Each structure stands twice: as structure tokens, then as C-alpha cells.
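Hello K.,

You asked for the raw outputs rather than the summary table, so here they are, unedited. I folded two proteins back to back in the same session to keep the settings identical. This is the first:
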Amino acid sequence: MSAEATNPVSAADAAVTDTTARRRGRARIDLRRLGRAALLGATAGPAPRDRLPDAISHVAEAHRAHHPDADLAVLRRAYVLAESSHRGQFRKSGEPYITHPLAVTLILAELGAETTTLTASLLHDTVEDTEVTLDQVRREFGDEVAYLVDGVTKVEKIDYGAAAEPETFRKMLVATGDDVRVMSIKLADRLHNMRTLGVMRPEKQARIAKVTRDFLIPLAERLGVQALKTELEDLVFAILHPEEYENTRRLIADNSHAVDALDAVAEQVGAVLREAGIGAEVLVRPRHFVSVHRVRLKRGDLRGCDFGRLLVLVAEDADCYGVLGELHTCFTPVISEFKDFIAAPKFNLYQSLHTAIAAPDGAVAEILIRTHRMHTVAEAGVVALGNPYAGQEPYAGPTPPTGQRALAPDPQPEDGERVDPTRPGWLSRLLDWQQSAPDPDTFWSSLRAHLAEDDEITVFRADGGTPGTISLPAGASCVDAAYAQHGEAAHGCLGARVNGRLAPLSTVLGDGDTVQLLLSQDTPSAFGSVSGPSPEWLDHARTAAARIAITGWLQAHPEAAAAPADAGPRPQVNVTADRRSGAELHADLEGEPAAAVRPAGCCTPVPPDEITGFRVRGGSVTVHRAGCAAVETMRAVGREPVAVRWGDTAQCRVTLVAESFGRPRLLADLTEAIATAGAAVVSATVEPPSEQRVRHTYTLHLPDAAGLPALMRAMRDVPGVYDVSRARRRRTAEPREA
């Protein structure tokens, strides 16, 4: 699926693209041949019923390669309707318009799409650009095809004006939520349009390329359709960054034989696997333009192996690890390049083992290891999954109005979770928050931010609710988890417990964390009464759902954004900060907003240290030891101290660092000294010895903070220990927090 002759790249570039296409085994689409075949079909009348029209025979060939038993009669009927309805229409490049739906259908056929998707792709522009109605499509091809065609049909610009494009995307995404094949057709449609964009004005090329970059390429990535994503990236790169593209094109052309180095490595890898008795296919995959550009930025001057990667295809999952073991045994592996996406698949269905080995000339050869099935899904993503509703009842009822959910099959078990492997968590979250977007501009900007997220994490609910997990983008905070779990009820969220410990709502969550959200109705009164979110929550919200909900509440309650000057004093807040110290900390906050109080990580104060506090970003109070260097830094930048004090609780948690010379039984002797002093070990780490010196870090729980000096003396008395100190972070950590 290389670029057409009419796309915005040069003839020299086309030669490079042809070489890449041949290596990848992809067929080129000859638009002029398709146009001639379409015109001949129009003048000579319909083809006999026992064979397909010439213009669609290549689509049938590609389709039968993936689905040998496919019924092609429906494709013939769809082509006849599309050709007759588009007859007399021409694209700006001069070809008959029917060449566009044919090219889109061929793209999907090569990816392995099933017959219903191909039927809808042939008809995808008929309702929008011809006299054919959706009811006519439904009568002749069924509700399923009609739903797919309606999903990719644009809304009328006369009805929506400037909001037509975002509302079209909204309608398409809602339709995708019920049938992901809608987005498959849209991506193939945009790919062919991008291939033939060279006939457009430069400013229109740039506008379409930017929308493709911001919305469709991320969607292709999230749906796992790498074959479409990589070509879209190259076409956008050529339009929006012509100088960098030309430099990359020239670099690839000047090194057209560089991949020969990978051929030599491929032969060695193949020989090793044959000797080990592992049946595998070893292929050389040249990098596409954007990939070469990224590698050049990362590594500087490129060597032969940098222009491509090796792909090893095997039959079974277990063989993937067998190949990995042989490669790491017979070659020098680059451990930092190893990634296991089989045991932990990416959120877009991608599975593969990634590794790298040192080539004989010292260059690094990257290798991908996967099964043939994994490779099909890696290239075609959700397209390779076929019809997610196969074997279920067909669509029932009319196509819903624009913006409403479809009456498509939506099987749901008792827990309400949709049974559809092609509908990932990010799509479900998108469908949830788009309903709350108050206007097209908010939806458009929120969608761009939503699609910019690169990865997902999964956190567990501590309350045992259903579902037991929450999917969030990487970097999400407790604020995002609150709105993902409770919706608008999260307005009353006062805090959270992360992995069993009290944490502020600004806490960034990690993959696998356990989260318990504390709402106003089930939180102890010590937290005070909070009626809604504060503006600072927007600083910590990563998801569109959280940001839209918070913004909507603040707009409806403008008094919350800035409390009036004559407002009465806020209640004092006493927070047990057991997350770091285990001791009670109290802040005197008369007349100031409520806040969480926590010890600073730079100096880890514990009773009976002399302490002082400062307001930091998000409104919380960070407590430092009086002698901490960060105190002077805070005062120097004009931060006013907040009066803080220790509570009545004598217990505390503290982290100590023991520096020692290495010797046998050192760890046992240190642990015994700690236990004798009455402290409990919460966690302990021992760094690898360096120049016969060993660094031990202990987090300890003391029943009485007054015993800390005696504990430190007892640890120093252990033979070989030459220093014991309180743990402290580098000073750079505190200004980032402030």
C-alpha cells in the first residue's frame, strides 16, 4: 500500500517507496487502470451475473487470499450500485470517482477485512455524495452494512456550520463504540485521500495533514492498525515537515544497500534457529521514513542495521521464548532493548518480543519475535479480528439519529461490561466523557488531548466493587481515578488511600496500585466539609472526563474558584500523615483553605524534631525540619511559613541509611540491633557493594519517637558500620514539588 503517483512526494521518493513496497510484499494500486476499467464497465453495461466486473476483480483476489470461502456476490452488487451512483463524478486528480471506494476497499481487503466491511467500504460515499439513501442501502444489503455506511457519513455542514468536522468525528466515534469496523473504513478512506492529496492547495494539504496527525494516526495506533498508521505518518511527515522529510528520503536513497548488513545477520539468525530445531521465518523489515528519522535523532549517524529490523515468525507462543533464548545464548544481547509484549500485551492488542543483538561489525540489530497470528494482528489490528458480532443476532431496528447510540447488538453480562474484544477501555472512557462535552470546541480539544496519551495503567479498587479494576492513562492521578469510578459523585472526594496509605488527590498512580477514594459521606469529620472540587484539581486531572466534570462544576459554582473576602474562616484541618512518618501532624489554618498536611521527603521529620510548614502547589502543607536547607529556599522565594505541630501520638515511621564495610552476617547483625531497640522493619533495601562499601536503607516503625537517637547509636555500634543517618532526597526534589 505505497503512495500513489499523485501524492506530494517526488519521483525519487517514489522509487524508494517502490523498493520498500516490494520488500514488504505490498501491491501498488494503479488508479489509471482502475479508472479505465470503471469507464469500460460504464459504457459496456453491467458484467454478466456469473463473474465480477473487471474493476473489482483485484479486490476479490485480495479478499479470497484471506477468506477463501467468501461469498463474492454481495461485493458484485455493492460495486454495481456504487459505480452507477458515482457515474459522471470525478476526483480532483481526474480519475473517475469510483476509483476512490475501490482503492479504500482494496486497502481493507489486503488487511484481511471480512465481506461485510468491504461491502460497506464500496458504498461508504454513496449516501453522502449521491442520490442513494440509507434506507435503500438497508433494503439491499441489510442493517449491518447500513450502520457502517452511516457511521462514516459526514453530517451536513449546512446544519452544523463550523462545528461540522468535530460533530462528524463525534458521530463516527459513537458509531465505533458499537462497531469498530466504522473506524477501520474511515482510516482506509483517509489513507487513500492522503495518498492523492498532491492535487490540493498547500494550505488545504496542511490542514488535512494536521487533523490526520492529531486524530486519525493516534486512533490507528490505538486500534493496532500499524500498516495504515506507518504510511499515514510518512505522508503527514512529507507535508508538514518537507525539509526533514527530504533529508530522510535522501538518507534512505543514499543507503539503499545498507540493509544488506541486516541480510547477513538474518542468515546467521536463521542458521542458529535451524540448528536448534526451531521452525522460523526470518525477514528483513526496512524502516519507514518517520522511523528512520526518529532513529537518526536518537542515535546520530546511522549504520546499516539501523535502517531496518529483523522479524522472526514462529508457529506457537512458546517458540517465541525459545527463539529468544537461542539468540541471547548465541549472540551478545543488548539487555536494555528487551521488552516482553506477549506476557504483557499493549493496550492496542499488540503482542511481540523485542530484543537487540550486537552484529559482527559492532552495530546493533533490533529483532521482533512473534507468531504468525500475532503478526497479522500487529499489522491489521482490529481489522484482523473480523466481525466481533459473528454468531449473534443481526442488527435490529432503524439507524439512530446523529449523536445517539446505535441499536446494534450490545450483549452485556450481568456486571454490565460489554462482551466485545475490539472495544478497549480507552474507547469506553472516550464514549463516556464525550456525552458531557458541552460544545464542539470542548469535545475537539479534549479529544486531541485524550488521543495524545501514549499508554495505559490499571489500578485496583480497594472497595471490592465491580468492575474491580479501573483503566487510566499513564500519569493519571487520584483525581482521575475518582471521576472514572464515581462520576459526578467525585465532586465530594476528599482524599484517597493508595496501597493502604493516606495520599493526597494529586498523587500520580502507578500500574497495579490499589486505590480507595474517600468521599464526603464516608470520610471522618477530621477532613472537614468540602462541597465540590477546587480549581487546583485541574492541575492534577489527566483524563478528559475529569477535566470536563471539574470545569463544569466550577462554571456552575463561580464562588468556588475564588472565595469572597468576607467569607468566614475555614475550619482547621488535622491530618494524620501516616503515609510517610506515621505520626500526627497538625496545621493551624484559621481563615485559609483546607489542606492535607504531610512531611517533606527531603528531610523526613519525625517527633520530636522542630518543624515548620509551607503551602505548596495543590494547596497542601509540606512540613520540614527547622534546619532543612529547603526552609531557607522557601523563605528566599517569599513563601510564608505555616504553624505546624506534632500530635499526641508518640509512634513514628522513619527511614535510616546505614553506611558500612562489607562483611559476612552484617545484615543479620543490623536487623538484630533494630529488633533489640524495639523497632519494626517496614521495608529494607541493600545496594550492591561498591569498593567494599555497602549501603543499607531501612524504613522502620518506632512505638516511641523518643527512642530514635538510641536506635541510631545501636546501629552505629554494629561492627563494620561507620555511619547511620536519616534518609533525605536531593534538594532538587522540593522545588519541583513547591
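The second followed immediately with the same parameters:
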Amino acid sequence: MSAEAADPGAPLRRRSRPRIDLRRLGRVALLGPVSRDRLPDAIGHVAEAHRAHHPDADLTILRRAYVLAESSHRGQTRKSGEPYITHPLAVTLILAELGAETTTLTASLLHDTVEDTEVTLDQVREQFGAEVCYLVDGVTKLEKVDYGAAAEPETFRKMLVATGNDVRVMSIKLADRLHNMRTLGVMRPEKQARIAKVTRDVLIPLAERLGVQALKTELEDLVFAILHPEEYEHTRALITDAAGRADAPLETIADNVRHTLRDAGINAEVLIRPRHFVSVHRIRGKRGELRGTDFGRLLVLVAEDADCYAVLGELHTCFTPVISEFKDFIAAPKFNLYQSLHTAVVGPQGAVAEILIRTHRMHKVAEAGVVALGNPYAQDHATVQQAESSDERADPTRPGWLSRLLDWQESATDPDTFWTTLRDDLAQDREITVFRTDGGTLGLPAGASCVDAAYAQYGDRAHTAIGARVNGRLATLSTVLSDGDTVQPLLAQDTASGPSPDWLDHVRTPAARIAITGWFADHPDEAKPGPETVDAGKSGPTEPVPPERDAQAAAAPTRTRSGPRSTGVVVDGAGAPVRLAGCCTPVPPDELTGFVVRGGAVTVHRRTCPAVAAMQEIGRAPVGAGWADADGGESDAGCRVTLVAESFGRPRLLADLTEAIATAEAAIVSATVEPPSEQRVRHTYTLQLPDAAGLPALMRAMREVAGVYDVSRAQHPTPAG
């Protein structure tokens, strides 16, 4: 260690070195080997980075935290052979570069002391206060000795609950994982892959939701390098080659933009912002061949919000704009605090450059998210005392998605259920806002239905829901909501009625799913007809089923032909109408199973459909079902199936997909295209095929369309087309 590191109590020296750029360091780590030397001057780098954002910060507490961390970790080494103290120092440096305030940096220096040394939480509280103690406790892992295989999911549950009270807990965890990912090369390949997958499924979505783009993008690149090494190496070669070219079209356009804004009297800073590895990879998947301007975007930084629109006006006046690329995230910020204007213009020789326009403050928040907010919990002394006495803290930064997550996690007592549900919840990367008729709002994931809105507004009272009004018009509970809709769930007067099992086909929020499955777990013998039948993606009020008809459906062990001829399905039971489930759209030769739903009908699913397991978990007895021709019956011509195509967005993609469908002689019954998310587009088609045997060839043809990376059978209902 340096002399300063050996004597942490010595005054911290400010040196005339350039500020450390977190993105640059991360990019260097990916593009070439990184020296494993100890951090120079130990705590000195942290102090300089901190003072760059907080010039008046008192560094005394940081020195004391370093003394405790260094002495308690003394003698410990990382798997790379470095002294262990280099890890908390590196984590703290990451947060300091993002602009974290002193309390966060203090807790970051101490974040492993309670977990890995003899230091106790009581000691941390006594020496550094309750706030630092809370942050350290929030990121301290639970012992495998006590929790076994459940240690990892329960640790994440603990951290998320702590994050609900203080978002700085997750900031420290994200910086901790980033440094661990940077140094993951010393681990066994299988352990690298396991850690990378958890990072991809849980921590990267959390970084996105908290708006910490600087950490999110580097984590994405590090995961990409581990899980997809060949694609990563190819992308790396493309970036290296582009960096070495003399002709740089972005430089030319940037110079033109600078001159344009200077002539207009607008004071602006114009920078070239290189794309990270995953972004370049997505662009290549979208366009096939990369253009010179695809390796970066222009960033225009101004002082005031009004200047952003002034810049936009000048650019659209002096250049040819690509109107489809314009997005206004200033007037309508993203749910993770992000604000910016996005546009694209055509430069010399037809080169298209994407441009981001934002204020310096917006840029800081775009990079650091909640970390850039400083200490959002700064309150007067009386309020702090009151908060400490009630052991609760008001969090002005808690977003809607975090509140929903904290609500449903209380009901997911089983660690496996929590872990699976958490990953599914975080995979929903877009949010919508719907309005209640009383003037309130509900934040829901994209694709949420009226069922989700009912449970979000009424909790367990939503068990009695019978329908909804959407934008003033009656709608079924399966109706998928759009951003800005006004929704009014309608509840039955009979408070003893319960949900329909088919509601599970329509929910997207974990809280609603857990509430519904919990109700059926508490009512395993519930067979009374309810207020609604949900079938093939549609729901609506129906008449109660007479008990004698219910008994008929459960009787008759022989299999007879039931239901409309168009289904081509026979079930065990006499006279019951048969419907094909909209969640999985079974076609021959899929193996089938059915369930009696309210109204006496039998809904038939593929045996591999997730709804089958959900039905069986709540005690619903399956009904035998099969295709008519399998029993010697008359088979109907044709079949209906719902396919989901995942693709990278590009011009003419929709036309090429529909052409591939038409060439396979399939008729499009309905189609939906979700708005692009991070350059990815999801298409859902309900198709009528002349023969089920043609389904594999159709799916192959759709996969061969440029930009399409996956085609699968639908597992969830889709909005009616």
C-alpha cells in the first residue's frame, strides 16, 4: 500500500489529475486487460471523486470508515490474490463517481464488514449512526448455514424490503455487483455463468428501474461477454475496427450541429456518445449491416428545459428529421426518472445520426438515476426522531413498481415462488399509467388487464369483480389496458363470491396472481358457479350454472363428442360445450387436457400450458380430452393458433412477416404489435391454418425473416385484434 493508505488518518491530498470517468474505465475493462495493481492512494481517489460532486463534503467520517474497514479486512484476500480492502474501495469509488452523498459512501466502505469480519451492526450503529447501520444491514447477505438453498432469494427479498425504505441500499448492491462482475474472470466458468444469469435476470432490470444507466449498461456488456462470448468477440472486433477508421461520419454531423447551434445563438455542448457493446449488437441484429453512424449517438447538453426544445427546432429546421425517431421524454418522463428528447436527422451523404437532447441536470440523472438525488431522506430533526421512533421512513423516491413489488412479496412466503415471481416481474420492462374514476392513478406493467387493475385498486375485494368500464364503456375483465385509459372495476354485491380460475390467464401483476391462487388454496372444494366465465381470452357476466348441470358435467365416464364441430375436440362428458383456450391455442397433435369452467363449458388446454399447472395447484380436477380424429371421429378442416414473434425493429419488418404468413397459406385472424422496447418488437398473430401439419413449416418461415430471433406458441392471452 502507499504511504497514504498505510496512514489513513493523514490529511487527504488533492492532486491535479483528471477526473475518473466510470464509463471510460468500464469500456477499457472490456476492450483490454486491466492492471491488478492496488488502487493508488487508497482512499484518496474516493475523496477526489466525492469532492468533484460535493465540494463542501466533510471527509472525516470517510476516513474513520476506511480505518475500520481496512483493519477489519486486514489479512483477507480476494480470489485474485488482492487485499480484500480493494473491493470496498472500488465499490465506493464507483458510487463516488456517480455522485453519491457521504452517508452512502460510508456505508459502501463498510458494506462487507458485518458479513465477513468480526464487526457487528451494533458497532457500526455506535460509531456511524443508525442511517449507515441501516444501509450496511440492508446489503448484508443471509447465512447459508441458516437458510440453505433459500439463502440467495431470501437475501434479495431482504434487500428489496430495505430498498423500499431507502433506495440507497440497492445503489450499493449494484455497485458491489459491478465490481464483482469486472473481476469475475478468476471464477470457474460455471460459477461465472450462474452469477451472470442472476445479474441479467434481477440486477440489470433493477438498475434500469432505478435509472442508474451507467451501471446498467456496463453490467449488460459484462454479462454479454460471459454468456455470449462469440457474439461479444464479433461485436468487439466491429467496435475496434470502427474506432480505427479515419472517416467518421458522426464527427462530420457533430461539427455541422455545433455550427448550426452557434449560428442560432444557442449555448450547447455537442458530444459523441459511443454505444455500448450490447447496444451495437442489437443494432446489428436490427439492421444487419452496420452503418458508420451506428456506433454512437450525438448528445447535446444545454442549461434549461426550454433550450432543449430550441435545439430541437433548429435541428429539424436545418436538417432533414426522421420523424418516426422523435420521442419526448421531457414532457412525459420515463418511470425511472429519465428525461431527454430523442430525434434523428439526415446528414451528409444520407448518413442518419441519432441525437439526444437534455440539460446537464437531466444528463446526471440519466446516468446515475436515484444516486444523483443525493440524500432524498434529509429531514429536520423532529421528523427524523419521529421516523426513528416508528421505525418507518417516508421515501419520496419510491416508484410504483417498487411499491407493487413490496406488496406482493409479503404473500410469496415460499422462497422458490418469490424468486420465480421476482424474475417474471422484473422481465416486464414497460409500465403504463391508468386513471381511476376518483381521480387517482394506478401504475401497472404493460399488458395488464382489468383484473390487474381491480386487484391493484381493491385488493382482496377484487375477488368479487364482475367486469369493468374502460373509458366509460363496459368491458370484460380480460380487456388489456393501454397507457392513459380510465378504468372502473365493477364488483358484485355478493361478497361471498370468488374469482374465476381463468382469471389467471389474464393477470400480469404478481399481486393479483398470488391473491387469486391464494383464494383457491383456501377454497379447494369451491365449485359454485361465479359471476363470470373467462374463455379463450374473453370474459363477461353469465348466468349461474344450475347444480344439476354441474353434476352432469362431473358424471358420465365415457368420452363423447361435445362442443362445436369447429373445435375438433372430444372430452369426457356429455353435452358440455368445448372451447379451445386462448392462452395456448392448442392444435393437432398437441396433447390436451380440459377443465370445467363456470357456465359448465370445458376449456381445453395444451398439457404443457402453464394454466394447467395453475389449475391443478388450486385443486381443479382435469377432464380428459383429445382430438376427434384420434378416436375415430370426424376431424374438422383447419386449426387456429396464436404465435408470438420476437424481433429487432427495422423497416418493412411487418410487411415481411405477413408475407411469410401468407406464403404458408395461413389467414391472419388478428394481429397486435407492441411498441418497441430497447429496439425489440413483439408481434402476436392469431392465425387460421388449413392444416395443423403446416405449423412447423410456418414457424420456420417466420424465424427466417431478417430481424426475427424467436417464434413461439403463445402462453398468455392477447388483446382482441
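Residues 401 and 443 are 7 Å apart (CA to CA).

Happy to rerun anything if the numbers look odd on your end.

Regards,
P.
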